[in-house]
Design brief:
Layout: H1 3-23, H2 28-55, E1 59-66, E2 70-76, H3 78-101, H4 110-129, H5 133-151, H6 158-189, H7 204-222, H8 231-237, H9 240-265, H10 271-294, H11 298-325, H12 329-364, H13 375-378, H14 380-393, H15 400-413, H16 421-454, H17 461-464, H18 471-489, H19 492-506, E3 513-514, E4 522-523, H20 533-553, H21 579-582, H22 584-589, H23 591-594, E5 597-603, E6 613-619, H24 623-646, H25 651-672
Antiparallel strand pairs: 1-2, 3-4, 5-6
Helix pairs in contact: 1-2, 1-4, 2-3, 2-4, 3-4, 3-9, 3-12, 3-18, 4-5, 4-9, 5-6, 6-7, 6-8, 7-9, 8-9, 8-11, 9-11, 9-12, 10-11, 10-16, 11-12, 11-15, 11-16, 12-14, 12-15, 12-18, 12-19, 14-16, 14-18, 15-16, 15-18
């Protein structure tokens, strides 16, 4: 069996999942097991297909001979294989998790969800592999439509309908920019095949315009600011296993499309390409995590965190553009490697966190962190796995998030190699500072997310009565948590794969990293020291073991278990830190950006001494909405009002419009001759 056979088998398995969900729709338990098993098998074969491609050569498979647009083929090169690896890993675990999670949807159109779920994975696979402009745009729209139906699965809820509507509008706006970018290249190149599109970017004006169009179009799907507004609405509305796929994989389709344009079609560009991307990335990273820290909705918090992590990925890509434009291919390879490695890491730990949040929501029926608490006793395994994901996304050492962010730090530190002078040094310092601030705020954010959700006492009856998630949901989460640890302690195999992939664009010698075993990748001739993470982990464990031995030798002290001392009062959930209270110091520091507004409502029973209750309501102002979307909204409404006045309903007036347009066309035509 070769890569072509595995690719076809992958497509067949997803199609089988779709058909089985429809055929078996009256037997929900069977649908749940069969359809999601087909999805898991399809993702597994996608991983095997990616491995075969990395071990061999690029595979081109003809799919459809379209008489008007020409041959449509699937091209399995190393870039496509890397993204197949990402969707395969996350998709397989999400599909296994869905077998347990979707029991919640028995009697609520489960077969429709299972069919759309398989179609969603199928469309993502096709986005990563088709190498024809028209075919890419078709499967891109299919992916958008299918994910719209998944977001709107619980359409009875108004908030879900609104989220799905905004998602559909924003992604179609982005698609319009993508279509324009493709057509500009295709018309000038004279072909719709990806292999020939690079010939369409010979004019500098066209290249600059295509870059901007691709950045806006794919940036909308990725969720970079300011075109991110759909993401914190759609991800919480979708079922949790779908949220894991949307955040872990779907937004990465935008990174894939952008990478195709920048690596395949356009190549190295002027410095302002990289600077623009770095600025947008830094804004997305800092504001994304800042808004996540203010959120009390657990899934919405994770959604805003995805905006932050897309910003970190684009920091690496922006640095790579600058280095490639100045001929520093070695540093360009380092920056792109950091971006792609963080892309993989984010797919793993963010899907783990969404699956953990899904377990919490399933067992407590709430996403409000303020109504949770104490779940570490009721759901200890879920708590431990969520903690692993929180440590990874906070970039703590020995977890995978630390590796990719450290590589991104290295790339940004070397920016003066491309941006010379005091301006280059200042820019490097600012972007490094932005990444450092992002990491610190992310750590605070997930201390809040884990601490308020799982520690202390339950704040509601639902939290106090929660039970542990079933094994079929815990095992996929455990695999992803193990992946976070493996990718953090042993990054060399993935870095070697990325090195081989980037060698297709910069040459084998241009991205030749040297990394000692064990250690982190660093470019030859630029930096020598390596950070031996596995040995550091061994030393840390040895230190812990030594401390335990000393503790045992000195004897075990007698311990008495009791309630926390609170001056003789039994502690209650009302004495705990709230999520809102935890974030107040940071809210105060960044008040100029967040512009918080607090309302205090006092309720009393007429007594001056007891019975008085205070309720606080906090509102955060989203500055980008006021600066960008509200003016656009006002312009659209004004234009609609003008068109409404034109559309009077008078037949005579409409005939006059037709006559006027006809006269104008005749005059214009005669003037040309």
């Amino acid at each position: 069996m070769n890569a072509s056979d595995l690719y076809l088998l992958t497509l067949i398995l997803f199609c089988t999942g779709i058909v089985s969900a429809v055929v078996l729709r009256k037997h929900e338990k069977t649908v749940n097991r069969v359809a999601h098993s087909m999805a898991a098998l399809g993702c597994t074969t996608a991983v095997l297909c990616a491995i075969f491609v990395f071990a061999g050569e690029t595979v081109v498979m003809p799919l459809i001979n379209w008489s008007f647009f020409g041959m449509i083929s699937a091209r399995l090169d190393r870039l496509a294989a890397f993204f197949l690896l990402v969707v395969g890993l996350v998709g397989a675990m999400s599909s296994l998790y869905a077998v347990g999670y979707c029991r919640e949807y028995y009697g609520r159109r489960l077969w429709i969800m299972a069919a759309w779920y398989n179609a969603f994975l199928l469309s993502i696979i096709l986005v990563f592999t088709v190498s024809h402009v028209v075919a890419f745009l078709v499967v891109w729209e299919v992916m958008t439509a299918v994910s719209f139906f998944l977001v709107n699965h619980e359409w009875e809820k108004e908030v879900n309908r609104r989220a799905a509507y905004i998602y559909l509008v924003m992604t179609h706006i982005g698609t319009a920019f993508i279509i324009t970018a493709f057509l500009l290249l295709a018309v000038r190149a004279g072909t719709f095949d990806f292999a020939g599109l690079a010939q369409g970017g010979t004019s500098e004006t066209v290249r600059n315009l295509v870059f901007l169009l691709a950045l806006v179009g794919f940036g909308t799907k990725a969720g970079i600011m300011p075109v991110h507004i759909w993401l914190p609405l759609a991800h919480p509305a979708a079922p949790s296993h779908v949220s894991a796929l949307m955040s872990g994989v779907m937004i990465k389709t935008a990174i894939y499309g952008l990478s195709r344009f920048l690596l395949d079609f356009l190549g190295a560009g002027p410095d302002w390409w990289g600077v623009l991307m770095l600025v947008l990335a830094a804004v997305s990273a800092v504001l994304g995590v800042l808004y996540a820290l203010m959120e009390n909705d657990l899934k919405r918090l994770l959604a805003y965190s995805s905006v932050e992590n897309v910003g970190i990925i684009l920091l690496g890509i922006g640095a790579g553009l600058l280095f490639a434009g100045s001929g520093q291919t070695l540093l360009a390879g380092l920056a792109w490697s950091a971006a792609f490695y963080h892309l993989l890491n984010h797919a793993v730990f963010k899907s783990l966190l969404f699956l953990g949040a899904g377990a919490v929501v399933q067992r407590t029926h709430t996403k409000d962190i303020e109504r949770l608490g104490g779940l570490i006793r009721r759901m200890p395994y879920t708590a431990a796995l969520f903690l692993a994901g929180a440590a990874a996304i906070s970039a703590l050492p020995f977890m995978n998030g630390f590796i990719s962010e450290w590589l991104t730090f290295q790339a940004l530190i070397y920016l003066p190699y491309s941006l010379s002078g005091i301006g280059g040094r200042l820019a490097a310092a600012l972007f490094v500072t932005a990444l450092g601030l992002t990491g610190a705020l992310a750590a605070a954010c997930f201390v809040k997310a884990f601490g308020v959700t799982f520690l202390a006492k339950p704040r509601s009856a639902a939290a106090g009565q929660a039970t542990e998630a079933p094994a079929v949901m815990l095992v996929p989460m455990a695999v992803l948590a193990a992946g976070c640890a493996v990718l953090g302690l042993w990054p060399q195999p993935v870095l070697a794969v990325l090195q081989a992939m980037l060698a297709d664009y910069y040459g084998a010698s241009g991205v030749a990293f040297r990394y000692a075993w064990p250690g982190l990748a660093v470019p030859v001739g630029v930096a020598q020291p390596v950070l031996a993470l596995p040995w550091a982990a061994v030393l840390l464990l040895a230190g812990v073991a030594l401390a335990l031995v000393i503790f045992r030798l000195r004897g075990t002290p007698r311990a008495t278990v009791g309630e926390t001392w609170t001056c003789g009062i039994v502690p209650t959930a009302r004495m705990e830190y709230t999520a809102t209270g935890f974030s107040k110091p940071i809210r105060t520091v960044f008040a100029a950006i967040l512009q918080p507004r607090r309302e205090t409502v006092a309720q009393d029973d007429g007594s001056a001494y007891y019975g008085r209750r205070l309720a606080y309501r906090l509102h955060i102002r989203y500055v980008l909405n006021d600066l960008f979307y509200r003016p656009v909204h006002a312009v659209v409404l004004s234009g609609a009002q003008a068109l409404k006045n034109i559309q009077s309903g008078s037949l005579q007036l409409y005939i006059g419009y037709v006559l006027a347009v006809t006269v104008i066309i005749l005059v214009w035509s005669t003037s040309r001759w």
